[in-house]
Write a structure and sequence with these properties.
This protein has 195 residues and is mainly alpha-helical. It has a single domain, classed as Four Helix Bundle (Hemerythrin (Met), subunit A) (Up-down Bundle), CATH 1.20.120. Helix 3 packs antiparallel against helix 4, helix 4 runs antiparallel to helix 6 and helix 5 packs across helix 6. It is elongated. The N and C termini lie far apart (67 Å). About 8% of the residues have low confidence.
Amino acid sequence: MSRRLLWGAAVLFLVAVSCSGTLSTGEYYAEIEGSVGTYDADTAEIFSVYRSAVQVGLEEFEQATAGDDLDSDMLAAATVDFRRVTVAEITQAFREVKSALDRYVLALDRLAPPSELETVHAEWVATLQRAEDAIPELITELRSAATLQAISGIINGSAFGDVQPRVVAACRKVEEAALVLDRLLDLKCGSATGP
């Protein structure tokens, strides 16, 4: 009877451990690399569409302003059109980034990393969440942009822009923690100064 009780307790312990949800380091790396790949592809597509739309707008602006009969009213109208297209495209791009970032944060937040990576993982997810939370205010501010330089200034001066160095640093901490565990992990952390 006591042997059966011990065997039952051992089985219950193993079931409890296996149902705890904590991933092995290998499983964690695979999950995180998959999430990074998806987010990277999503945002690359978003900004490719944005750049293409702005390029078309720029070509239309150049056509509208290329003539000997160009007067100040025509130039002003072409400038307003280009600004409208550019602002509409960048705000749409950031709405889509927010959606992609929401999916990314949810995917990462659902992971139960190994204990050696819990702290750095939680910090990374928290900084990504701060970036996502800053996007609605950024979109509102972008609507007032009058030039491409203003768009860049608004992005760089926003809470979204401010949190980017912390996102990069937290991402690199996950890579460094993985390296300590003998795993080279490329999370495409980017740089604090890059796009």
